[in-house]
């Protein structure tokens, strides 16, 4: 596991970093994560809040997450990129949304959760055409 996590939003106005190894790496398929990300599942890197920092202007929105507990999601105030979350039931952690990592290849899912809520938007189906670039 990596000992450093760095990332940014789409426009580059917000950058974050976390030192230390991840506590977990997972894909969450709860409906809250689906709606927040606009995808079938949200790849998440869990880090210690004490090792996490960011620079730039973020906006936040708090809602009851898939766990049934409040969670705050933070996004860039300029481009709207979803960047990280802070679950209220575990204030000692921050959840980094792996799609915003500078080196997304660092992400290695260890497990998936709320798989009962996973559905066809998950396009990694072996029976559909796969294109390494733009589809013809």
TrEMBL record:
Record-linked Pfam families: GFA
Transmembrane regions listed in the UniProt entry: none
InterPro entries with a match to the protein in the record: CENP-V/GFA, Mss4-like_sf
Lyase listed as a keyword: yes
Organism domain of life: Bacteria
Single GO MF annotation: carbon-sulfur lyase activity
Keyword Zinc in record: yes
Domain CENP-V/GFA: 5-120
Keywords in alphabetical order: Lyase, Metal-binding, Zinc
Family indicated by similarity: Belongs to the Gfa family.
Protein name from the UniProt record: GFA family protein
Organism: Paraburkholderia sprentiae WSM5005
